[in-house]
């Protein structure tokens, strides 16, 4: 796919916009694509990124530079081409009208829950955490879309001092647990304790998980995740899992 | 233009198949690949009982390659025959089933259950990612001989292929043993045992510590092994290891392969198998080659 | 912060040396590298008589690697001692000389001539590019034992290192033989036999047909071999194979290497040796490692 | 080094201009550099290219797309960085005032002899051949710098029909051989017969040869060429050889 725009929004995060041709299906919130910079065989494999924003002409990915693949992707410019495979995986289910949807995003996990916010109507509460204030991205864009926005930073440089989980613990003690449904995406350090927490409070929840991937199509068994019902493939049975399965 | 090749009794409409474990049970790729166009589909290794495989993480990318330690997660023989095979049978292509057992008996049980149901059976005697897996056989020539002889005896109709390991003591000697025992073909190379370490946590990148290296990185090693083996035996070779383009496929054919299998490249480009068939056609056109069989082992040296 | 390591009697100020054949006789790189800063300089393999090497073409690039069949072009023992060694002696670094003979006698003649003149002698028993080269020894465990025993006996002062081949029957067994015979250290891995074919001319890319694969492509294989070997022996390992960055070097050290050698990466970046020493320092600083020796074999698994 | 400009001049040939910083020495005509696109380890090795044009601020390379490395280099854009190693190898010796310097260029070999033309005074005759007219590059730039310019094309679409060697055979029959000195660069199919020809007519000549390279520094012995005096390294004892050595 052709790169239309590639914009840094912080020194570590950029938004990559690709032209959507008819051959590429539009995603559902929570789905992802494998992106491969096509320069040689190093790096070799596609990298998974959640669909962030899209319309009929283009799709955007919100990407954090972590390693070589993302560094390469950050250098692509309008007119360049990137191989795109997707949309892949399962979507977040639509929030039921009887429950308040609470979105939990840790770091770049924001990309995936943000797409839910944009595409599925709901009276959202958004809890968003990062290391420090500059890493809380696009908060001005989020505000008008949600009923309540809570920001958390590890260093206290903005909002609640502490991580999303600490905030959420406080939060659930006040909210009646059966009236909320949680949609979450973030690093393992956030999703692991979150699962336990949701189970403890018996809260309905959907979590987007990460695992290294090769094929993205359910063929290689590389992205396996241990679940109650055996090994599941994050690329097929995920990335969004109902916490009951996990 | 003839692209048809023969592996034992199995006639493939073109020399291109998929490498076991990289194409699922075929179905996973049907959105991208019309299976009718492939010479054969080789499916993920099957064991007697379903297996969970190794705990994650199971894959890691390395320079121009990847290491995997899937550990043979598979649905098991019964589910394969009941659920996966009927779907595949709906296509006009050959079906090759890769099998792996812990004991000679298990291998024999697998092969006799599949005999006649599939076009070919590929004995995986070299999976580096299963503790009691075939590695044991591939590192002992005489054990290998016993194993393949016994399996050979269980098979009446399907073609029997033995998949050799680049980590075995001497791959050429093992290929000769296969020929002596009356195996119809060998396939090579399986992944090369490898590992990677996260220097910040000091832990291995894979939960299984080591895994198998595949992808373009290993192609020059595979080509050399196929060339050496081709000079030593007269049975056909199904070659694999780092094939990404038609050029790579032809390189292996010139080195001595009768058919070639695409593995890791499916992850890089899901339509790669078809692109390669097309590319082989173009090459034959440009170089005025009427019959693909005339290219086999055609290296000039 | 201590970067000093010990290989036999040889004390290296840091664990970084160059891989034989990729750094000439040292002089070639002095425009880029202050040799005084290296733990040791390992020079191109030396034979008794000067050698012309193989006809060109001798190198070919492959995915994340290269294959070479230089065929041990070198100035010969006498010229080396007269012309190359005095220059190297002017630096405050260790000198490791890689040697290759056709017969046990030749090896012994080389080793006794160099004994005491250089800090260490590295026996190349595994060069894949010379017909009568060491490959013969590396594929026969008992021949190898005889060879290294006899060479061992000729050396009184220099440290003796045996360079093992990834293509040998079993690299771990060979390492054990080295330890049993009283060799001070092993180095590994040499290049992996490989080949490439020009599909348009149908000829091999190298005049020698096959060559040795080196570069990042082989690193995961090298790391695995070093790890396996480290668990089996107690003498130090000098590790090489695809090291390009300090991360790669540390990966090998955690796998069990006492020192590491940089080969192909010198071609990619001529200052890479110094960059890696710097990178190792930074890593030790960040991870609060006082002594590099505490990292050796530090893999947690 | 930083890319300042990268311009296609035909669909297969481009001129890459890099900023020259103080750390990089200026070349002599005939010398070359190893250029490495710095995206990953594939391709791994630097590619050798002759210094084409330069001043104190920049250096240009005239590059023909032949494989993966050159295709990658053609995509570099202003602001990108490319690793540069050099100048490497031996230069063309200056033409003696007593002999007419005859430059022979086949295809992209033009880059190297052109640098001689630009940098060393002389009353040059330039014989330049290519497959067909569109592949004869920058002939308008060459014209004002030479006494005589002869163009050859295999298909006769411009100038003499035939290759440089065929033309040169005709040419030497007319010129007294001792009064010329030849500087040549081109593909093997040109340089091999040229060597023989020059020997037959006992003409002084310097030929720039090509061989695959790894280190460029004389260390790896990868670029060996058989000569009268044994194996020589094209990167050190070449790329320019006196035909007497060959
Ligand atoms: C379903 C899914 C959705 C994701 N969505 C986003 C997103 O919207 N924005 C974003 O910035 N990141 C997202 N990630 C994480 C992103 O895939 C990794 O940051 C990226 O692969 C790192 O690649 P690299 O080459 O820069 O890092 P390297 O560490 O060099 O990569 C080495 C290998 O590990 C894999 N890898 C590394 N980190 C991860 C990870 N966290 N998850 C899976 N594989 C990984 C790479 O794909 C590659 O194969 C998502 C991951 C998954 C699984
Ligand atoms: C001293 C010297 C000066 C040169 N000057 C120029 C120049 O000014 N302009 C120009 O366009 N080309 C020049 N060349 C040729 C140029 O180096 C090759 O075209 C280029 O390396 C091809 O790289 P690739 O990756 O596109 O091709 P690939 O075929 O993919 O390369 C594969 C490998 O072969 C090597 N290789 C391929 N062709 C050649 C060749 N002809 N000579 C040496 N190595 C080769 C590559 O460097 C690489 O290592 C010169 C070569 C030499 C030796
Ligand atoms: C993810 C993965 C799973 C594999 N599973 C199997 C398997 O079940 N049985 C088998 O014989 N080989 C298996 N292989 C090896 C491949 O079939 C093939 O031999 C190897 O990957 C080399 O080819 P390539 O470089 O094209 O991938 C697997 C390889 C990969 C990458
Ligand atoms: C061009 C070249 C020449 C080499 N010559 C020798 C040699 O003379 N003796 C030897 O023992 N190893 C030789 N080697 C092998 C290297 O020393 C090293 O073991 C191997 O290249 C793996 O390391 P690398 O991947 O860092 O290059 C050579 C390697 C290359 C690339
Ligand atoms: S990435 Fe291959 S099965 Fe999920
Ligand atoms: S390229 Fe290494 S010696 Fe010339």
How would you describe this structure to a colleague?
The complex is a heterotetramer, with two copies of chain A (246 residues) and two copies of chain B (301 residues). Chain A has helices at 68-74, 110-119, 139-142, 164-174, 188-200, and strands at 3-8, 13-19, 32-37, 47-50, 53-54, 58-64, 82-88, 100-106, 125-130, 148-153, 160-161, 180-185, 204-208, 224-227, 230-233, 240-242. Chain A is of the alpha/beta class. Helix content of chain A is 18%, strand content 33%. Chain A has two domains: 3-88, Translation factors (Elongation Factor Tu (Ef-tu), domain 3); 100-245, 3-Layer(aba) Sandwich (Rossmann fold), CATH 3.40.50.80. Chain A is globular and about 50 Å long. In chain A, the strands form four sheets. A seven-stranded mixed beta sheet of chain A has the order 11-10-9-8-12-13-16, with helices on both faces. In chain A, strands 1-2-6-5 form a four-stranded antiparallel beta sheet. A three-stranded antiparallel beta sheet of chain A has the order 4-3-7. Chain B has a single domain, classed as TIM Barrel. Chain B has 301 residues and is α/β, with parallel strands linked by helices. Chain B has helices spanning 76-89, 104-114, 135-138, 141-154, 171-181, 219-232, 246-255, 265-268, 272-286; strands at 5-7, 10-12, 16-18, 40-46, 59-62, 65-68, 94-99, 120-124, 159-163, 185-188, 192-195, 197-198, 203-204, 210-214, 237-240, 259-262. Chains B and C meet through strand 11, strand 13, helix 6 and helix 7 of B and strand 11, strand 13, helix 6 and helix 7 of C. One flavin mononucleotide is lined by residues 19-22, 44-45, 68, 70, 72, 98, 124, 127, 163, 190-191, 214-215, 218, 240-243, 262-265 of chain B.
